[in-house]
Design goal:
The chain is of the alpha+beta class and 422 residues long. Helices cover 42% and strands 13% of the residues. The longest helix is centred in the C-terminal third of the chain and has 16 residues, at 385-400.
Length: 422
């Protein structure tokens, strides 16, 4: 981690009328993981430059972000703005020094800039603690070329139709893995499991935060996943990277991914934008017609600390450097559209989303239609969530490997989680 050199204190005379410049101000400190990736660094630097706010960028790997946020706050190192994954908010949102953007801008103003359903990813306990930097979901993606060649004219709406389509793909592509089920990495396994659990009408916790995992729906979900493995419609030892490669090389017809799926299909197919026509986001099939389909909420948020850079004359202000920086990245249509053009990141602001680049992009239109009713990862809000995620993934693996039956695994999920809750 870079050592931050102390700079002069924020000058009292800020140009607050327009926020376009900040005379005599110190750089705000921005912690993120995107600039840790060499290919993304110049893109993000270009976006930051357009905000016209002086910024000191701190790089962190994605896996170390949460640890580094806590470390900087605990050791009182500079931190003004940070990037978060939306699913981290229930945990990191408990930090006492986060700004509630409803207090800063007003809820009504924010919803005129960003759709309420997009803002939802940054809401926690009635507070708007994060603003969406880019949006989307973890949705099911279909390879239309493989579907067409397998005689599948419409994407499946029910789980039975989905299994039938997988069998058709397997017949047409005998060496393929029709559905690239995530079977490697705890986070990925638990994510795919939750999406299919919701599709079966189940849940991990009920409306009162009580465990609901030991259910008929869980048993049905586990048996469904085992069937896919047993019938070679999915395979073991697959992670997101492998799934993306299989999809782009026409060895997998379906997998769950974020909106960046199109970019990876371009790369792995070797055909660039010509391959876009075959990347089809779709709603997750459900157990019975009429049930609500769910995607998993996904997106990157920006959060603001109650630091000196968030204040003018000692008070939190929407004209402060931190606020103007976040406002530029999350509400400025030109900046957001530039991000979309260079990396495919779907913008959150109404102004950017109404632009023809977005509104007439078939892929984005289809992606937005794939959401159904997005739900937050149920395990992300739990204290010591990694332990719960491990329980789910281990029990899923025990079933698909034939070590336990589904009823035993569902009961063990509940009993092991109960021990964690003590």
């Amino acid at each position: 981690m870079k050592k931050i050199i102390k700079m002069t204190l924020l000058a009292s005379a800020l140009v607050a009328a327009t926020g376009s410049s900040f005379a005599a101000s110190k750089d705000i400190t921005f912690l993120n993981w995107v600039t840790a990736e060499p290919s993304n660094k110049p893109v993000i630097q270009g976006l930051i430059d357009k905000t016209e706010v002086p910024v000191n960028i701190l790089d962190s790997s994605w896996g170390d972000m949460q640890k580094n946020i806590y470390l900087r706050l605990r050791t009182k190192q500079a931190l003004d703005v940070s990037q978060l994954q939306a699913r981290w908010l229930p945990t990191l949102g408990k930090m006492p020094n986060l700004v509630d953007f409803n207090d800063l801008y007003g809820k009504e103003f924010l919803e005129k800039q960003i759709p309420a359903e997009v803002l939802e990813a940054g809401r926690l306990n009635g507070k708007q603690l994060g603003l969406p930097w880019n949006t989307g979901s973890i949705s099911l993606v279909a390879n239309k070329k493989m579907l067409d060649e397998s005689g599948i004219s419409e994407t499946p709406k029910t789980i039975n139709e989905f299994v039938s389509s997988l069998r058709k793909v397997k017949s047409q592509y005998p060496q393929s893995t029709p559905y690239a089920l995530m079977t490697k990495s705890n986070n990925l396994i638990s994510g795919d499991f939750q999406l299919w659990l919701w599709a079966h009408g189940g849940k991990i916790f009920d409306e009162n935060s009580k465990l609901a995992i030991n259910s008929e729906e869980t048993v049905e979900t586990l048996n469904f996943l085992k069937l896919l493995i047993d019938q070679k419609l999915a395979s073991l030892d697959t992670d997101r990277g492998a799934a993306r490669r299989l999809f782009g090389q026409e060895s997998a017809a379906y997998y769950f991914d974020a909106p960046v799926a199109r970019g990876f299909a371009r790369d792995f197919s070797g055909k660039g934008a010509e391959y876009d026509q075959y990347v089809l986001p779709m709603q997750t099939p459900v157990a019975k017609e009429g049930m609500t389909s769910h995607a998993m909420q996904w997106g990157h948020l920006l959060v603001m600390m109650k630091s000196d850079s968030a204040k003018i004359n000692g008070k939190l202000s929407k004209d402060s450097p931190s606020a103007k920086f976040i406002e530029g990245l999350t509400m400025n249509a030109d900046i957001q559209l530039d991000y979309f053009k260079k990396s495919g990141a779907i913008p959150g602001s109404l102004a950017a989303r109404s632009n023809e680049l977005i509104s007439k992009d078939t892929y984005i239109v289809n992606w937005n239609a794939s959401l159904g009713l997005p739900k937050r990862n149920e395990l992300s809000a739990v204290k010591n969530s990694a332990n719960y995620i491990a329980v789910v993934s281990e029990e899923v693996q025990s079933v698909i490997l034939g070590q336990k039956d589904a009823k035993e695994a569902a009961a063990d999920m509940e009993s092991r989680m109960k021990r964690l809750m003590k």
